[in-house]
From TrEMBL:
Statement: the UniProt record of this protein carries the keyword Transport: no
Name of the molecule in the record: Glutamate racemase
Molecular functions per Gene Ontology: glutamate racemase activity
Alphabetic keyword roster: Isomerase
InterPro entries in the cross-refs: Asp/Glu/hydantoin_racemase, Asp/Glu_race, Asp/Glu_racemase_AS_1
Amino acid sequence: MKIALMDSGIGLLAAAAAVRRLRPDAELVLSSDPASMPWGPRTPEELTALALDVARAAAAHRPDALIIACNTASVHALPAIRAELEPALPVIGTVPAIKPAAAGGGSVAIWATPATTGSPYQRALIAEFGGAAEVTEVPCPGLADAVEHGDEAGIDRAVAAAAALTPSDVRAVVLGCTHYELVAGRIRDAVQRPGRPPLALHASAGAVAAQALRRIGADPAPTAEPSGTLTVLRAGSVAALPDAALTYAEGRVLAAGAPVR
């Protein structure tokens, strides 16, 4: 089987690594266009056009499913991408894991890009799935960009700034941008307060990977032969994984787990 993933940049690594863990034999196609980042500040029309180009590049490799591994693109471009590619190609979007995070009540924070924080989309998700939880929206300016470039000092500054805006009694944090999943451990360390119960982090990578398999009628097979290939596309052209990707565990898993073509 072949699973494609798309994002503006390397935020797709977490979902790709999740697919690799579930199906080591799956061929992966990673399609991005980092030169067009960031997508968040763009108009919905601009973002949709960019996302469609990245999706078309992935679709040209004839995958069995396409994961939009980007919260912002899922908000604005998912309908257009589905209208063009489905039903021939199942398209799976990424939604912040607000529902499971809020299920236990208490204080919950959603870390997201400034463009998503306070947006009608996110507010609607909170209204629908927030339940009795006390939900705080936390903007994280600069964090996705720092993660994209492997900027250690920039990541530290952005995480510290967002942690300062996070309630001290927070029980769970929703990672509302796929880039943030690559630095989940650093976020946990910054937010965990002494004497408080262990912080729960809620990400989307595992859920979208599992949904992609369900959409194509495939079962998880984590012990399968690790024979899947890896194709990396940047603006539609075949490329290598960027150096920044290899600074994260997910990138190293993908680089080591299969031959790159």
